[in-house]
Amino acid sequence: MVFPNYRCNSLEGENRTQASERFRTQLATDAEIHQALSVLQHLMLIIDLDRHQIKVIPTDIQADWVQLTVQELSREGYLCAMEKAIATQTPQSFQYQLTHTNQLTRSFQAQIYPYADNTVLWVAQPHASLSPPPSWPSLLAEITLKIRQSLDVEEILEVTTTEVCKLLQTDRALILQLQKDGSALVIQESVVPGWIALLGHKIYDPCFRAYEFHYLQGRIGQLSQIETLCKDSCYRDLLDYFQVQSNLVIPIISQDKLWGFIVLHQCSHPRDWQSWEIDFINQLGNQVGIAINQSEILKKMQVVAQKLTFHFENSPLAVIEWNHEFRVSQWSPQAEHILGWDFAEVQGQHWSQFPFIFDPDLEEFKESVFSLIDGSQDRQICSYRNLTKTGQVIYCQWYHSVLRDREGNVLSILSLVQDVSDRHKAETALRQSEAHFRITFEQSPIGMSLNNLDGTAVQLNQAYLNLLGYSFAELKKLPIRYFIHPDDLHIDQALYQQLIDRKIDHYTIEKRLINKSKEIVYTLFKVALIYDDNGDPLHLISQVIDISDRQQVEESLRQSEERWQLAIQGNHDGIWDWNVQTNQVFFSPRWKEMLGYSDGEISNDLEEWTERIHPDDFPWAVRAIRKHFNQETPFYMHEHRLQCKDGSYKWILDRGRALWDEAGNVLRMVGSHTDISDRKQ
Q1: Residue 556 and residue 567: Cα distance in Å, rounded?
Q2: Does the pLDDT of residue 205 top 80, yes or no?
Q3: Top-ranked range on mean pLDDT: pick from 27-36, 99-108, 663-672
Q4: Which of 162, 364, 433, 537 has its CA at 20 to 30 Å from residue 526's CA atom?
Q5: Burial group, residue 291, by CB count within 10 angstroms (0-12, 13-18, 19+)
Q6: Confidence band of 206 (pLDDT split at 50, 70, 90)
Q7: CATH assignment of 315-419, among 3.30.750.24, 3.30.450.20, 3.30.360.10, 3.30.428.10
Q8: 315, 335 in Cβ contact below 8 A?
Q9: Is 213 helix (H, G, I), strand (E, B) or coil?
């Protein structure tokens, strides 16, 4: 709405004293009188909106500035401010800027008072706040310090909005955070009473994303007079709804990304944002971006610390951290459980100050410590006998790792400790069992052999060699049919074919052999197949007895049968035989039964094992096998979980021993499975 020009008259016959006296009778409060009288040396107008008439109260202000003010009063922003003062019957603040014909620009701060019916008193004075206060650099430093003293984002943003409103005397200061959908959420606000609170509002402005690149380059958005300068009607309607007449938008950049904005609103009147104000808010926005980044980094570090603390406190292994002097700096609850000392008892203690290493293993532990400190090793896996606080000797596996700085100096040493006393007992039992089996195999009065499918020997015991009169080196070069009497060869071959076709799982046959002296030896053979991972035949395992003396043979056969069943059943253990060259494995019926399967439900394929082992245990089992294949351990032994047919897991003690050829290549490995689930409960 455009008003016609005002008529401008002087208050004839009144000097300043008379005018002041008349104001005393018409202004509402003593405070308003005091404020009006204090500016008589500046610009004072009485404006009648009905008659479009202006009366000028004589002051010291130059007439040119008065005339320029009168010329501006028909602008809509000025009219809105006057109408609001009349409608609300409360004084209104209004800020404006005038440019003289000599190009001198001057800013004014007006107070608009309701005076009479549809009449206002306009009191204006130069607006000192439009010039930067001399102390604004120190004020910026002070606000920045407040921001930096907190790493809490909410507190940082609250300080920012509060201090900005206080310093720049804006009606509203907002912090907007960009959302994934392109909108911006008002997450912090400082607003002068009487204006709409926007906290929690979600604002959609297409400029946010459209100008993201420009904001990242330092773009600042400002509108001094919304009504006249804002061309976008939708955007203007939005600002009108928020009662905004001037706004200033400063981007907040965090980690090189547009995080959000500092937004200032002047609601009471249009406002020309001064360059020092823009610079001030821009610098403050930079500090807020840095503080937000630091706060987010701190949150991530806190999450990492929480995870580490959780794993430290709940690890099934004891976790011990040593400083560069090998003094205890961390001691997990599991370390207390395994070794018996509380953290308070060992904190800061040198490893030599509390007797947790069994004396016979002390030198080995010292060597490990020195090699970690001097840099010759950064990781170790060691086994020691340890002493608990009560003096009990336990067997432990230690996993050491060293953290160094860039110069190679030790920062800390981490030790993971596992009590393997039960495993050590099992390993000892396995070694004894293997020794007994080896003695049985070597000292057995009956012949025992392991042959390839073509009959060439893989392993023969002494009784077998004595039976034929050959050395192992000689027999290894000859197929088994070379020793079979020609008249018995066809019978043996027929049974062998049935075995290969899986029509039978083993066979027993009496046949004649020809020894090295070309003599006929009457024997009783029991033959079975060992299969690879694909279920294909891999090896023949045989027992052979000299049956010249039938009674002795029957007794020997009974003993042999017992040993055979012992080897196959393993005292209720599952037996497996793995041809490493072909990956074929023989799984005994008991091996399959332990997992809930019948004999025909599981093939003789290595994948039957790899697909059932628990994923967490698989790499450790492979590691133990590899160490044994590299002959770092005398046998393979590992505890792991295998999945049963019903989906549950059963704890298995897996033991085995490999066979190598003369070149050191692994040929096969034979072992057993023992159900240790009860022990693991």
Answers
A1: 16
A2: no
A3: 663-672
A4: 433
A5: buried
A6: low
A7: 3.30.450.20
A8: no
A9: helix
Each residue of 132-166: pLDDT tens digit?
665 667 767 777 777 777 777 788 888 888 888 88
In whole angstroms, how far apart are CA 367 and each of 360, 380, 504, 666?
13, 11, 58, 32
Q: Which two tokens stand for residue 384?
A: 């020691």
pLDDT at 34 over 60: no
Span 435-462, pLDDT tens digits: 776 777 677 778 888 888 877 788 888 8
Structure tokens at 307: 């995870």
CB 416 within 8 A of CB 319: yes
3-state secondary structure of 404: strand
Residue 509 CA to residue 529 CA, distance in Å, equals 15
pLDDT at 564: 53
In angstroms, the CA 449 to CA 483 distance is 14
- How would you list the strands of the sheet with 246-254, edge to edge? 202-203, 184-191, 172-178, 257-266, 246-254, 221-223
- In angstroms, rounded to a whole number, what is the distance separating the alpha carbons of residues 564 and 587? 15
Looking at per-residue pLDDT, the higher value among 16 and 220 belongs to: 220
- How would you write 189-212 as a 3-class SS string? EEECCCCCCCCCCEECCHHHHHCH
Q: Are 183 and 159 in contact (CB under 8 A)?
A: no
Level-2 CATH architecture, domain 7-130: 2-Layer Sandwich (3.30)
Query: How far, in Å, CA of 142 to CA of 147, rounded?
Result: 9
Which amino acid is present at 32?
E
Residue found under tokens 């010249």: 548
Closest to 655 measured CA to CA, from 395, 394, 435, 447: 435
The two tokens of residue 27 are 């202004």
- Beta strand 53-57 with 7-10 is parallel
Closest alpha carbon to 371 in 329, 326, 406: 326
Q: Is 103 left (phi over 0), alpha (psi -120 to 50) or beta?
A: left
Least confident of 53-67, 169-183, 212-226: 212-226
Count, in order, helices (H) and strands (E) of the chain.
23, 27
Helix axes 153-168, 275-314, angle to 10 degrees: 170
Spans of all domains in the chain:
7-130, 136-297, 315-419, 575-680
pLDDT averaged over every residue in the chain? 79
Place of tokens 């245990």: 617
Query: How many residues can be counted in the chain?
Result: 681
Q: How far apart are CA 630 and CA 634, in angstroms?
A: 10
Write down the architecture of domain 575-680 according to CATH: 2-Layer Sandwich (3.30)
pTM confidence score: 0.40
Q: Tell me the C-alpha distance between 672 and 670, whole Å.
A: 7
Closest CA to 169 of 243, 30, 274: 274
Same-fold call for 7-130 versus 575-680? yes
Does 262 score more than 80 pLDDT? Answer: yes
For residue 654, the model assigns a pLDDT of 92
User: Long-range contacts made by residues 141-144, C-beta under 8 angstroms, separation at least 24?
Assistant: 143/167, 143/284, 143/287, 144/284, 144/287
